[in-house]
Amino acid sequence: MFQKDAFGADWSRAKDLLAYNAKGSGGGYHIYTVKPDGANPVQFGLGTPNFPQRTTGTPVWSPSGQFVAFVAEKSDHPGNSVPATPGWGSYSDLWVATADGSHAWQLTNVPTDKDHGTIIPEFSPDGRLLEWTERTKMPKILNPNRFAGYWEIKVANFDIGQDGTPSLSDVRSVSPPGDAFNETGGFSPDSSSLVFTSDFENHNFWHNQIYRLDLTSGATTRLTKGDSYNEHPRYTPDGQVLWMTSTDNPSHGTDWWTMGPDGSNPQRLSDFNADDNARVFGHKPVYATTVQTANWSADRSYFYGDVETNLLNSDSVIARVALTCHGA
Asked: What is the C-alpha radius of gyration for the chain, rounded to an integer number of angstroms?
């Protein structure tokens, strides 16, 4: 285990820092940065006058390491901060800050109601684009079609003014039309396409599938098969797709699998929920979630990934995962 009670890891080699979410002493979620060896954890944006003071989360570094994009809870809204938990996203907007957290800018402003929110920003590898996911209808947990609400994926140009101020232009929705659960994945290595999660074909959150979207043609291709639960696709540095799935996990939980960029040759990468391994997490189902493309070591021998241990309260750990090759 690298970091307990934390998730949302994103590694910037340019800054030699990991950014992640964790609960602060007051119970709310905040962004922290830390060295890859665990040294010098710092709360991001602490003491910056215009930095959001309530829940912040899902930080991602720009490729240059100059900026961190994240989501932040609105300063004033009905109810408490629980629905704004990172990854749930109620009453939350898209923000960006300088790498040291000394300056921050709000990029979007969704309506302040139960139907709207923001989750999971991602930069394209060339730094020109920023994507994120906005909610359009609140969840209805007894309805599989709307269990997590309806969401759409947005993409925009990420612009930097002559004075260094970042902004968005040409904001567009790129998810399939119609009400569905759609969720941001990662960009391809050449920034020409992206992978995402959606139930737009089967309208059942528990049977989400993984798709690839060509940003030039708009063509959408389904990559996963069957009716398992699938989510959180990201490209690996060598162009494969890593995602989480319940495939072959009859006792619940998810593991990491990889496949080709066209959906070919799916292979299991982890086996957290096997009987021999379950003792590591107290013999309870666990959910391997996001592994950012940037989170791989240069020699591809290990990566940092999120493992959720409780779906009800988002308890998670960040794991440093070493890879081994098994002979035939």
From this structure: 18
